[in-house]
Amino acid sequence: MERTLKMLAIAAVIASLSLHSFSQEKEEKGSAERERVKESGDVLKQILDMPDKGVPKSVLNGAKCVIVMPSVKKVAIGIGGTYGRGVMTCRTGSDYKGPWSAPIMMASSGGNIGFQIGGEATDFLIIVTNDQGAKSLLSNKVKLGADASIAAGPVGRTAEASTNASMQAQMLSYSRSRGVFGGVSLSGATLRPDGDANNNLYGKKVTPEEIIANKVEMPPEANQLIQDLQSVQ
Question: Chain-centre distance of CA 216, in angstroms?
Fold first, then answer.
């Protein structure tokens, strides 16, 4: 009897250690993705805090999705290649008019993804302006300027979003480097959902469509990102 109790106690300890190890491994597996979400929220907040030089509220109010790509850097892919990672959140509902969704992890690449000053990393912000642009990003790798139209976004509190380029483009793009913020052309770059990162962030295999359909729990790190977008009126 005593031996049986000892064996049960040992088994309980092993099970407890295994559960702790699994939980710790799961936590570590998504740590980079959670940091990416937090960093994206920080970048968006800094841009929204530029009332005279930032994105016009009329543009943000009409957005279907918002993509933030913090600290995009040049890498040695061909000539002048770049690679970045960030997040996208979209308005929920079939008409993209509902509350903002949990973050969808995104990746970008391309030799024409924008400019950099003095070799420093550049933050990018992309506003998706219509349903077609949003749908294309949820399931496919999209080449900007070819698969989806994109234009440099208007800047400033008094800037009008109703220019021909803005009205016709599916996406509006911006960049910030060394404090300099403005509309920039991202034609030629590609955007795609980062499947592995989404799986790591949510701890299970999940599609962008499932994320936007609220079938995942909102990560705490995304609270600032979502709250700041909700506050834009």
Answer: 16
Q: Reduce the DSSP state of residue 63 to 3 states and report it.
A: coil
Please tell me the distance from the alpha carbon of residue 208 to that of residue 65, in angstroms, as a whole number.
Answer: 12
**pTM, 2 dp:** 0.81
CA distances from 24 to 14, 17, 31, 68, 217 (A): 15, 10, 11, 28, 19
Q: What would the two tokens of residue 103 be?
A: 């973050």
Q: Mind listing the pLDDT tens digit for each residue in 94-103?
A: 889 999 999 9
Question: How many angstroms separate the CA atoms of 107 and 69, rounded?
Answer: 8
Amino acid sitting at position 156: G
Cα angle, residue 62 at apex, residues 59 and 65 outer, rounded to 5°: 95
Residue 111: phi and psi, rounded to 5, are: -85, -5
> Quick one: average pLDDT of 129-156?
90
Q: How far is CA 156 from the centre of its chain?
A: 23
Coil, helix or strand at residue 103: coil
Q: DSSP character for 144?
A: B
Helix, strand, or coil (residue 72): strand
